[in-house]
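I can't quite decide. Please look over this sequence plus structure tokens:

:::
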Amino acid sequence: MDLGLQGKNVFVTGASRGIGLRIARIFAEEGANIAFCARHAEGVDATAAELEQKGVEVVGHVADLGGDGASLKQAIEASAQKLGGLDILVQNVSAMAVGPTEADWEKSFQTDILGTIRSVDACLPYLEQSTAAAIVVVGTTAAISGTGGPQPYGAMKAGLLHYVSGLAHSLAAKQIRANTVSPSSVYFEGGVWHRVKEHMPERFEQTIARNPSGRMATPEEVAKAVVYLASPCASFITGVNLVVDGGLTQRVQF
């Protein structure tokens, strides 16, 4: 299936590793030009070098979504100027804060909530000029199911579901779509669950056992869902939270 992404311009936050890197790779393989940001220069350089091998335009920036927003806005504006506009925003970054302290809640709010809002606000002037505009925010099943206790990660992601739903409604008349993709646990080398497997193997096995599929998701499985929802093939889909969880959450959607 041709997803209609050839020549489209995409901005991906947090694209130097994990799900974000896979998202950028698949977009590039579909012929989209890639602009992205990450916190560390070495990761930006390595990702840019890899993506350039796919024959598309690539622009990488160092930016921190948990900061004051200045570096993020500058990265988005510079990317739009370099590529000649933006068609798609994928907001993938999360503080992954699960601690109980006020500092954990503040970190999660700054990165997950304000980082997303700032990304959207900076991209909107360019998305309004696109004929295939889309926003996809990467969420989590922790936003729609119990997490065993109060934690900022699930709570802030739940707030993003409400925010993206509001975006979808308010931007529909401008032909800008907004959706969320919510994965359950995702395993990759160097990721959170890789570290859990090494240092807390019992918790890792318990988490695997709770999923009826008997495994965790791969970054590629999540990335493919993101790219599809962002593509013109999903041109009449907006306001959706696409759950990618192998059957973990038990829910009925109406």
Observations:
- The chain has a mean pLDDT of 95.
- The longest strand covers residues 176-183.
- Residues 102-127 form the longest helix (26 residues).
- The radius of gyration is 17 Å.
